[in-house]
Amino acid sequence: TYTDLCMSKQGPGGGRQSKKIVDDMMDFMNEPVSSNESVDQSFVPDGPPTDDDLAPFIRTIAKAADMRKADNIVAMRISKVTTVANFVVVCSGNSRPQNQAIAGAIQDDVLEAFGNEHDLLGNGVPEGTADSGWILLDFGDVMVHVMTPKSRLFYDIEGQWREKGGEYMNLDDVLLPNSGASLEAPKVGGAMTGISEEDDPFWS
Hints:
Strand content: 5-15%
Distance between the termini: 31 Å
Largest sheet: 5 strands, mixed
């Protein structure tokens, strides 16, 4: 599974180890869905993402990130197109301390609001570090990506799930004004404009 790929790296790390984790994440996302992984639509909830049973959990995550000044907070329901998770949340921070604070605030607020109902999978700590430019909080049903703007544009997780049929969840009821605009990166020939594949997608 997606989580097994991350956990096989023996916990969070930085530098080359975290880049390997990131590469494995992207390889997994780009693999065709097998017949064993196809979604049984009879189990997919009706109605918009805001009415989903996980919506209160998503709002808690988004609000926690917003209170730490995260940029471009986006939540997407992906349960109609994959069995990997039900939702993905993506947000950006502009410094190592900020990204670490965003991830920590999400964990703290989830624990306060839900207790042990939504635990991090694996060894119970985030995968990746602020130094790597990509922190993954894998709650099982929900995966949260705290990224630098540069790595977010390069890997375009949001765009990939959107193309697969992911549904945006409206977060206007929890985000402060000007904090939750969707980040959409223009593409040319399948690559991010302004960022070559040779560039380091993590902190410079």
